[in-house]
């Protein structure tokens, strides 16, 4: 029998339950905007707030770095990853291809039952009517994930699950535009109608229209956010003291 060196497996410094809980808390704070994009993450503050040592905080930050939600800079600590325009644009290009394919395949299924998806649409529309932004975002994510799960391709689901935290940040930005919320759910309904009617190309087209429209809104909203942040930084900067040059000094004395 093969005996493994006892040093082959490293000991776990952080209990898995604690580590998972800390990761979840920090991730949720990032995606719901409590920790805004670009903000510095202070390990001491998080440890005190979560009532844990710094070890699970460091573990969580490394895990979130792998997810792309945190950036760790040498000698500068950790920050929440900014919403990168190029990355988000690429993300929506990928989403357009995958979701267009998924809804077309669902529309080809003669016995596919879209009623669970319609229930999510109804809940989303009610959330829009009540103005509950977090509920709108949650229902939006739920519908898109449910479409992938209904298709049933496990590798595809795994890929999309790994990106949902980025999608949630994007959805939070687009759905903060209140006038756009009703449009989102009208477009969701159009996709489901095409699926129920067993019209694959119509379903794909409706999905592409939806994703492309969301991408335009997202990029415009990111532009506005970056402008707002620049104005805040400018207003918070201390005015620079102006030193008189030799010519200025001469002019004053004159």
- Quaternary class: single chain
Query: How far do the termini sit from each other?
Result: 98 Å
According to CATH, the homologous superfamily of the largest domain is GntR ligand-binding domain-like
The helix count comes to 10
Strand order of the largest sheet: 1-3-2
Based on CA inertia axes, which overall geometry fits?
A: globular
For the record, the count of structural domains works out to: 2
Chain-averaged pLDDT? 84
CATH class of the largest domain: Mainly Alpha
Classify the secondary structure makeup into a structural class: mainly alpha
Q: CATH fold name of the largest domain, please?
A: Four Helix Bundle (Hemerythrin (Met), subunit A)
Share of residues in helices: over 70%
What is the name of the CATH architecture of the largest domain?
Up-down Bundle
Beta-strand residue percentage: under 5%
Order of helices and strands: HEHHEEHHHHHHH
The stretches of 5 or more residues where confidence is low (pLDDT under 50) are 1-12, 240-254
Q: How many whole angstroms does the radius of gyration measure?
A: 24 Å
| Biggest beta-sheet profile | 3 strands, antiparallel
Secondary structure tally: strands: 3
